[in-house]
């Protein structure tokens, strides 16, 4: 009896962003069937895992690091992942998420939770994770191995990068696949 080859362990993470990168990941369509034959998806919005697992081979991280929970998770990702990919423009540059960086956190929270047309109130602040002073691109919080730009990255770009990694080859994105936005 032959043993099956070890499947790589793939994780996806959604930090401070819109989930558009994960939507683009789902738009891989038939490639997802090929992918599932080669990897075990061990963490992400489609997996019921409460803590980030150990021994992850490839981790796609969407979104900027915006709060203390994001920062802790990013550090866990780096410790437990062989390859960390900054997945989409928010993770690569901070993008839209970092637009709040010009507003002091206290002023931002006051405007959103107390002075808004339909204020949420102070109770919400008791359960929300503390915001960092600035929303950070992922590489400012942890070491990143690969940058996959796009808002969101188009499925072909994702498939090209993941396929190269699965084949233990360097990721060589063509110039048209290195664009932002």
> Which fold does the CATH topology refer to?
Rossmann fold
Number of strands: 7
Basic shape: globular
What oligomeric state do these chains adopt?
Answer: single chain
Overall pLDDT metric = 91
Largest sheet entry = 5 strands, parallel
What's the N-to-C terminus distance? 50 Å
Runs with pLDDT <50, length 5+? none
Give the domain tally: 1
Q: State the helix count.
A: 7
CATH architectural designation: 3-Layer(aba) Sandwich
**How is the largest sheet built, in terms of strand order?**
2-1-3-5-7
Keywords, separated by commas or semicolons:
alpha/beta; Rossmann fold; two-stranded antiparallel ribbon; 7 helices; about 35% helix; globular
Structural write-up:
- This protein is α/β, with parallel strands linked by helices and 181 residues long.
- It has one domain: NADH:ubiquinone oxidoreductase-like, 20kDa subunit (Rossmann fold), CATH 3.40.50.
- Helix content is 34%, strand content 21%.
- It contains seven helices and seven strands.
- The protein has a five-stranded parallel sheet with strand order 2-1-3-5-7, with helices on both faces.
- It is globular and about 55 Å long.
- The N and C termini lie far apart (50 Å).
């Amino acid at each position: 009896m032959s043993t099956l080859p070890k499947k790589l362990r793939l994780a996806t993470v959604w930090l401070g962003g819109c989930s558009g990168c994960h939507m683009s990941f789902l738009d891989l369509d038939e490639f997802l069937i090929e992918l599932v034959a080669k990897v075990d998806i061990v963490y992400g919005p489609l997996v019921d895992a409460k803590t980030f697992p150990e021994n992850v081979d490839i981790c796609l991280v969407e979104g900027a690091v915006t709060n203390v929970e994001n920062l802790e998770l990013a550090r866990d990702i780096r410790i437990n992942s062989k390859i960390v990919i900054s997945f989409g423009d928010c993770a690569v540059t901070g993008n839209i998420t970092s637009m709040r960086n010009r507003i002091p956190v206290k002023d931002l929270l006051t405007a959103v939770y107390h002075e808004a047309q339909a204020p949420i109130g102070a109770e919400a602040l008791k359960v929300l994770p503390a915001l960092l002073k600035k929303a950070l691109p992922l590489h400012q919080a942890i070491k990143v191995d690969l940058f996959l730009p796009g808002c969101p990255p188009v499925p072909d770009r994702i498939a090209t990068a993941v396929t190269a990694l699965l084949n233990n080859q360097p990721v060589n994105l063509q110039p048209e696949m290195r664009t932002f936005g």
